[in-house]
Each structure stands twice: as structure tokens, then as C-alpha cells.
TrEMBL record, chains A, B:
The protein's annotated pathway: Cofactor biosynthesis; thiamine diphosphate biosynthesis
Keyword Lyase: yes
UniProt-annotated stretches for the region Disordered: 1-56
The name this protein goes by in its record: Phosphomethylpyrimidine synthase
A Gene Ontology biological process term: thiamine diphosphate biosynthetic process
Similarity remark: Belongs to the ThiC family.
Entry note: cofactor: Binds 1 [4Fe-4S] cluster per subunit. The cluster is coordinated with 3 cysteines and an exchangeable S-adenosyl-L-methionine.
EC number: 4.1.99.17
Gene Ontology molecular function: 4 iron, 4 sulfur cluster binding; phosphomethylpyrimidine synthase activity; zinc ion binding
Binding site for substrate: N169, M198, Y227, H261, S281, R282, G283, D322, G323, L324, R325, E361, Y388
Comp. bias (Polar residues): 8-22
Amino acid sequence: MSHKLPNLGNNPSSTAAGTTPGSFAKKSHIAPGPEGRWTFASPDTPGMPEPSSKTAWDFLPDGWTTEIVDQEGSSKPGETVFRQSDETLRKVTFPADFKPITQLESARLGIVTPEMKRVAERESHLTAEQVRDEVASGRMVIPANRVHLEHQLDPMCIGRASKTKVNANMGASPVSSGTHEEVEKLKWAEKWGADTVMDLSTGGDLDECRQAIIENSRVPIGTVPIYSMIIGRKLYDLNLDIILDSLRHQAAQGVDYFTIHAGVLQEHLQYVKDRLIGIVSRGGSLLAKWMIDHGEQNPMYTGWEQICEVMREYDVTFSIGDGLRPGGLADATDQAQLAELSTLGELTERAWRKGVQVMIEGPGHVPFDQIEYNMKLERQLCHGAPFYVLGPLVTDIFPGYDHITSCIGATSAAYHGASMLCYVTPKEHLGLPKKDDVKQGCIAYKIAAHSADVALGIPGTRDRDDELTKARAALNWEKHFELSFDPDTARAYHDEDLDVDTDFCAMCGHDWCSVRISKEIVEFASGKDDDYKWDRAKVSAALSEEQKEILAKRGVLSPEEIHKLASKTKNAVGAAEKKASCHSDYTDAETAQQIQNSEIVELKVD
Amino acid sequence: MSHKLPNLGNNPSSTAAGTTPGSFAKKSHIAPGPEGRWTFASPDTPGMPEPSSKTAWDFLPDGWTTEIVDQEGSSKPGETVFRQSDETLRKVTFPADFKPITQLESARLGIVTPEMKRVAERESHLTAEQVRDEVASGRMVIPANRVHLEHQLDPMCIGRASKTKVNANMGASPVSSGTHEEVEKLKWAEKWGADTVMDLSTGGDLDECRQAIIENSRVPIGTVPIYSMIIGRKLYDLNLDIILDSLRHQAAQGVDYFTIHAGVLQEHLQYVKDRLIGIVSRGGSLLAKWMIDHGEQNPMYTGWEQICEVMREYDVTFSIGDGLRPGGLADATDQAQLAELSTLGELTERAWRKGVQVMIEGPGHVPFDQIEYNMKLERQLCHGAPFYVLGPLVTDIFPGYDHITSCIGATSAAYHGASMLCYVTPKEHLGLPKKDDVKQGCIAYKIAAHSADVALGIPGTRDRDDELTKARAALNWEKHFELSFDPDTARAYHDEDLDVDTDFCAMCGHDWCSVRISKEIVEFASGKDDDYKWDRAKVSAALSEEQKEILAKRGVLSPEEIHKLASKTKNAVGAAEKKASCHSDYTDAETAQQIQNSEIVELKVD
């Protein structure tokens, strides 16, 4: 994020602040989890699948037991009792020689890791113990490969108790891009708020690109390892040994999470033939072809426990891929997708038994009305493992604008149950995203994630919105832009029409500014706040290089006009120039009003 | 819309086509209205306000009666019996000398007007009789001033039984724009799918601008007449005579609907003082000031029946303004807003008694979780009069991107009950929209309206999505772009990376194309369809001027690169050039694959 959210304390956000709630009855709520813990959740529309009554505690490794007990016990080898964040005491027994490696394993032993502490710092509404307990329940993951932690990784979490996260995809393809460009996109995605980044390279030097991205990233890195598994060999020759070698290699490089399409089974393929667009997942289609060619089950499914052992060694988190996700509205929520989702639930249980952290990948094209159902079915079948959703797009007919069609679906998905949103850029379906597409995709998804967090009432998330509203009420443009997610764009658009900060804007002009008039009518809470008081009109600073570029790309001003905005000084835009004067370039609001009245239109509101 | 939706028949849209619905349980439904008619509606989340049990039939003028009867009656003066679209017979009695003027009055007499017939043509899932009955119930309006009908107006409807509509605002302000520019924006908004346009001019020659917009528009035109009422006079001097004169003047010009802020009452102002940003409606703030200065009630409220008489004379439709709409998330769904909404319900009843068509304006900033409640409260308090909603924005901190923040809210609003969506452009809060902003605003809102219609299952609305999915499955790029809402942008983005139409795209490249691989695995329904069969790779036509401009504004290619794309021929991009070859500029897919394999990366999937 370009600006850190001001930390203004925990302010529950889903009722109107400073007012009596009146007859407003609907609120999202904090739903107690099956074990007395809590997550943020939307109320269920009638007909939604019930949440699973199980958590990762129900899928412990062989030889483990757990129960809630009344008193703290002895700490003999192979046994621990610890106080959970809901004040209950949990006793866990385990093989005496067991050493925890993954965050899940530590959490099961009641250990608060340094990564959990760091996560709690970043999620100011959570304690480290709550983070631990959410991880132990399987409802939260901390994707942090032990190797990546030795580089620059700043640990973060994904789960329903925490703020919604955004992933940005990048990676070279055989026809476009290279390592240097991808690292540049990585830094750019981090700047624009990506919480994790997936390197989906299928072209160029995959190994080099992956290494460079891991070394340069502060955010967790995910990959889809099947891509590198089949380069240089025939798909037919893929087998479990190659799969395990390849996973081990990438895990040793420091990849934090792997998308593994182990849920696409032979028996699911019959459901694909009636679809309009078959299989659109690359991993899914490759494995489907492999199964047909061999007449055998998906080797990632049959070899799941061996894969889990590689994952555990480095604490790589599963992102169990949805190889049968729908590729268009027509295929959404169909039998292929739902059959696979059920298998993903089974794989989740098996991974938890091996101590590996799990998230589940979710669909990419879903009509708006089906999103809640999809989210709540996952909560049931996969026991609340964090749901990591691509979009979803809510219409298919707007290629070039799919960052928008999908961020609508993403907002609803995050509100109804998704924990991480995989961005979609304007280039989706058309080509590989360029740098500006990465920015547009990130921003659309920060909008989705933030809006959902506000709607869910995650403490503190609406504070920045309220601060900006106060700045707006006070007509304090500088603060307004400072609080904006993309201050340069906001400033550039404002200055395009009116490069002076007055107590009105070019949208309505001085006399028509409702906020200005409203200020005369009543005293606002914020109006009394000296921090937000608008002082006097002043010419904005000349456009920065970045703002200049934004207006240039926008293409509605000529280069000369932009140059003028960029190089302006008080003299250059002053009273001497007729054109400038109608843009209220005077520093004095009264003079601006006077000019407007005399030159443009007569209007007296007082 | 730039392309007419292909009329492919009525295909109910909210289940997966061509598949067994499987365990998918949640569907939006067609809810029978209180009188046995129907509208499209989302299922109610628990706690939502019940729909009103009344319709416009409960608010007939004095001297009228109505009842459902068993047999067709005589047609004596002052009495009519007609068969409704649900097959029931309705008897209506009325003063014998009554002559209907408005669409509502005609509908009450069972008359199907030419405008209703035209609306039924445009809403292929509705009959003219259904349109009439929806208008009679007050759940639908046809904003068609009798004067505007003599120009180029093409009648349309707004209501829950029909497709969701989009309004684009324009109009000069004292600091920006003029008549010519506004007419140009009007044509541009029509091109990009605006269903109605509001002229919100507060600067320039208002009368001339309004006249020009009415004469040039095929879509209904709305205005906020208070703007012109107070130009050239002091707000304090405003009175009912001036109001009526001004309305009569604009009605005679041909304006189709008026926003009138009659719901802001003296007793509501106490609720404003605790808000973060007070009153953000221009009309609302002006009337509030008037009431405080005079110590009197809102003259538009007290003079409502006289205003209705002016409206009726030309069949101008009310858009009853929400002068107390929230200006930030913090103020959403507060007492000020809800108290006014209750008054809007009262004004609706009073307008219906005068035979005038009504829609209700709705809020601009609402957290995502509160949208359904807002929509369903209107359905209760205003008896289902069409809800015309601005956005709403679901977060405040993304100025410069408010077409996106608001189209998220607009999709949810349309799904839960809004009938028309007032667009928001990227310039919202910052300045007056320019031509490109109008386009971006329109497209974001066509996305919202269309996505909601698909989610509601309005027959036929998903057909174009499915056609595009089929074209995508067949890797038929030409059809893909033809079916896109903005073909030039889609084509330009595609050609930016790969200006040849092959059986893959630059996003994944040949070997990684899941759709291509998937085609090898199973036979798709669409794969067998000769209409969609992909034939052979071919170089796309050179970029059009419009596509060239799109890439230029995009700013990620140099002018030289764009020029190359724009002026290319087979020779210019052929094998001779090393750079071009990596972009697969060959017309032959096998050669492209070969180059890719040898030059970029080795991969064999077969």
C-alpha cells in the first residue's frame, strides 16, 4: 500500500458512527466458530450450506489426541496443556520425539512463533494467541517458507479472522516478458498493495526468474509447479518421482505456497464434456490429459501424502488448485466444479493430518447471485480452510475491463467467505499484463478487499474512510489526497480542471458546492476539528513527474496543457491570462467567486 | 450500447446451462408481487424489511375505485373492465369526463399506449400488457414527456420487471464545459449504453444547453430544476410561484423526469448535525438553507399537489430526490436518510393520487453489507416505486477510481432492488467528467446492470455471455471481439502483444493454452458448432484509428510500436524480423509453435 492506514484504534465499523442506528437492522456479525473461536462472516441467506462442525483439530496425525480440559496439567514429554485465546485450556498429546516444523504444528503445541507475533502486529485487531489458535484450527495460514524467511519475507496471514488479502499474478510466458521485467512488476505490485505474488512463468528461464522473485520479495511467493515439471519432457512421461523432485527443488528455493491440482480426478472428467468451455485451468487441463493418456488416477492425488512430506519439510503451504473451475458463467457451480470441491475437502483433511497448512482455490467466473453459495459450500466441505478466489468475473462480455467485472465478484466473495483474492488485470483473456495493468489490477482488488473488510466490520478498517470523509467535509484537499489510496491520480485529476485548492471543486464550482453550503448550515463534528479546518485557497504545487504521466496517459489534455499544469507557477497561471482566470487560478476564494459570478453565471445563495 | 445483444430467445439464466444443477441450491427467484404480478428479486437475507402490501392501485385519485371482478362488464362511461396480464379481470370506475394524460393514467384504464408497445419490443421478455400492468402498479415508469416524444425520444422503461437501466450525468458547471461539449458527451453516453441522461448544468447558458440536449437525445432526459430556479436571484427569494413557473418552463421544453428534493423537511435537519459530512446533495443543501432562513417547511413539500399538476400536464416523471443521502460510509443508513426515505414514501402516495409516475432516488455511499437493507426498505416504504440509485460507493478512500468503488455497490443494489443506476465517473469528487470519463463511467455501469440482470435470471440476459464463452472455447478471436462490449479496446489489448489470431493467446502462449489442450481432451458442445470453429491463424487487420488511440492513451507502448501495429502488413511483421517472430507473427500456428519451442522454451505436451 502506498500509505499506511492511520492507526486510530479499534472502531467497530458497520453502523453509522456518531448517530443513533435508527431502524437500521441488518449487520454483518462476528460468528463464533465451531470451537468457540470467531471469524468475520456475512449472515446466511436462506438455503446456504451450514458451516462444517469440524476444524483441523479433528484431523490430527496418527498418535495425536486433544481435548479441552479443566486445569493446567504437567508438561511431561509428549503432552502439553495451554490456554487458548478464548480462555479454555487445551491438552494435546503427541509422540514424545516430535519436533514441530510448520506453523500449524507449532500452533497445535500451543507455541506462538515469531511469525505469529509479526502477524498480530500487522493485524492490529488480533493478538498473537488468536493468530495461533486460528492457525491451529486450519482457518488461517501463514505462508512462510523457512528459506524465504532468511531473505526479506515479512510474515503475513490469510484467513477469515484477518483482513482480506490480495494476490497479484505475474510471470513470463513463452511469447512475452523476461526475468528483469518480472522483478520490476513484483516491486510494482508490492507498491500497489499486493499481499502475495504468484510467479506463473511458463517461458524464459523459469528457475532464474523464480529465484530472483523470491530474493527480491517481501511478500510470500506462490507458484504452480506443474509448469516447470513438464518443460523439456513429454507430458506423458510425468510421474510421481518427477513431481516430488520438482517440488523439492522449488521448496528449497523458498517458494511459500504451491498450487497443486490434486483434486481433478478421473471420475470428474465425465462432467466436463457438457461444459461450454471445458477446462480452463492450465494445470487442470494438463493433468486431465495425463489421466486420459495413462488411464490412471491423478498422480498428485494418489501421491498426496508423499507430497505433504515435501511441503512439511520447508513449511510450504498448499493452495489446492481448482483444476475444474468454470471458464464462463454458463459453467459455474456445475457438477464438475462441485465434485472437485468435495475432493479438495478430502485433500485438506489429509494435509492437516500431515501437519501442512492449506488454502483452497476458488472459481473464476460466477454469476453474482451464486457467489455466496460457492463461498459457504467451501466453508462446509473444506472445514473453513482459507478460500483463495480468482475474481470471480460476474459477466463474460467485457474483455478489456475484467479487472472491474471481477472485482465486483471479488468484493462479494470476500464478504461471504473468501480470505484472499487473486487479482485480474485489464489484460485478462487478451495477453500478459504490463506494468500499468498490474497497477490497475492491484487497485481494483484493494478496493474489493477493503470494501469487504469494512462491510464485515473488521475493527479499524473504516477509520481511513472516515478520516477522508472528514477531510472532504472540511474541503481540505491536501488531506483528502494524502488519505487517498493513489494520491497522484486523485491530485492529477483534480488539477486537470482546477489547479488551485479552494473551498469548492470544478465539479460544481463555488456557488454550487453543497459541502460548502452545508458548512454554513450546520456545524459538523469535523468542522470543529482544527486538524481539518480549511484555511484559504492556495495554488497546488506543480504536477510531479508521476502526475504528469498520469494525465498524459489519460489522453484528454494536450501535451501543452499538461506542460502548463506541470510547470505552472503563480505567475504562469495568474490573472493576466484570460483562460486561466476561468479556472479560478487565483489564490483567493472570494476573487474566484467574483470572477465566476461576473463572467460565467450570476448566482447568489445568500 | 455499441452492439445490440443478439436476440437468441428466452433462456432462463441462473443455473448452469447444459449441466445437471447438482447440489447448487441458491437461486434468485421471480417473486410474485402483492397483486399476483411479478418482479425479479433477490432472496431476502434474514432481517430484511418486508415488501409493502400496497401498490399504486391503493392510491387512486379521489372519485376512483377499483376491484378484481369475475366477469367482463359493460363499458359504460366512467367504468372499464379489462383483463390483466395475470388473467384476472380488473374493474375501474372514474369520473366520466376523465381523459388520461400520463402513462400511469392510461394503464389504470387498461389502455396499452404506443409507448408501452415500444417498451415491450425493447424488453423481449415482457408483453405490452405486462408493461401496462407494471406501470399501473407503480412498479414501473416510462419517462416520456409528450413534447420529447415529438423529437427523437425512443420510449424505455425503468422498473423491477425489466432490465436494469443506467443513467449518465452531464452538464456544464460554472468553471467548466459548454453546450457543444455537453451535446457531444450526450452522443458519447448514448454510444456507450446510457439509458437516460441527466443534464445537471449549473453554468453556461442553461436553457440553451437543455434545449440542445433534448432535441438531440434518443434517451429520456432528466434535470434538477432547482438549479435554474435560483440562478439570477437570491435563494431567499425562492417561492412556490417561481418553482411552478420554472417547472412548467422545463416541462414545456420536453424534460422527461425531474429530480425534486421535496423530502427534506425541517424536522429532519436535526439529524444532520452529527454527520461527518452533512448534506452533500446540492438541491438538498439549498432547500435546507432556505428552510432555516425562512423558518418554514420545504415549499416543494407543501406545494407538492400543485407541482404534481404541472408534472401531469406533460407526463413528466418524478424522480423524488434524496436530499439527505449520505456523503460517506460513516453517514450511511442513518436517521437523516431513513427519515427522509419515509417522507419519500408519503410523497409517492400523493403523486400517485394525482396520476403522476414516480421513481425514488437512493443513496451514494453505503457499506457493502448495508446495500440490501437500503434496497428492501425502499420497497417497503415506497411501495416498490422504481429505485434510482447513485452508485453507491462502498469505500471512500479511492478517489480517481470511484467508477469502480461505486459499480461494486451498484451491482449489489441492482441485484437487491434498484431499477436504475446513476453512473459515477473516475472524476467523481475531483472535477467534471471529460469524454473519456463518461465512457469509463458508462462501461462500469453497464457491467453492473448486466451482471445484476444475469444474477436475477431475467430471461435472455445471459445469452451474449454464453455466446462469447463459446467463441472463447473455439478460440475464435474475431467472434470473441465482436461479442465484446468494447471490441476496439479488447482487440487493441490483444494485438498489443500478439497481432495474429492463433489458437492461443499471449497470456499463456501456444503450448500452455488450456483451452487448446482442453479441446484435445473432450469434445465440447460448442466445438462441434461450425459457426464457432476456429479455422487457421491469421494476422489481424491493422489497428483502426480508434484502437490506435486506445493504445496511445494506455501509454505502455511507444508511438513507434503503436505505429508498427497500426501500419503493419504481413511483410512488415513477417519472418524477416527477429523481434516480430517471437510475437508469433506468422500466420501459421505450427510454425509459431516451432519457433516458440526452439527459441524460447522446450515443451511438448503430446
